[in-house]
Amino acid sequence: MARIKGFSFSEGNHKMGRVGSFSVMPGITCAHCNECYKDCYSRKMIAYRKTVRQAYEDNTKALMIDHRYDEFVKAACMFIDYNEYKLFRINVSGDFFSFDYLNACCEIAKRNPDVKFLAFTKQYEIVGEALELGLIPSNFNIVFSAWNTLIPENKDSVAVAYFDDGEHEDLIDPKATVCDGNCQKCKKCFYLGKGESVRFKAH
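User: That's the sequence. What structure does it adopt?
Assistant: Structure tokens below.
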């Protein structure tokens, strides 16, 4: 973890490779938390990684409670520029809990046009409003997460990621690309287009 202006950023990991990221707390920032609580990867991870939990809690407080959005944008841009990232992921944990937070993430992407940004979301309404207003830049790919019976109504006009628990095959797009877990080689989610989808098997 790297800390800038009180915000914590991840410098990458074994699975993702050289991809920077920023996260907030799961649960409190998520829509439809009841649907995915049992299988939430982030919730399980922070239960045994105390330093990561503290970092996510600090990030969440700074934005959700203290509304330090301008500082967040500056800190993120400094982190990206210093490390010369070409790929950056928003919300490895957590989600867009407010329109202001999403707008700040869009501003970061706008200030870094040569960087490709990625986020997964179940905050359909917040992201949908931003899409209608044309606020999301072309280098920011936001993929709508479908979790069993929770599926975005406009799934044919957005990129979709399906959670495959082995019990809801009929709800998953049969054309969805099956993730093989090799994020370092694939990077497909960063470029998933409208009407395209990916399937993540439960593990």
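The two ends are 25 Å apart (CA to CA).
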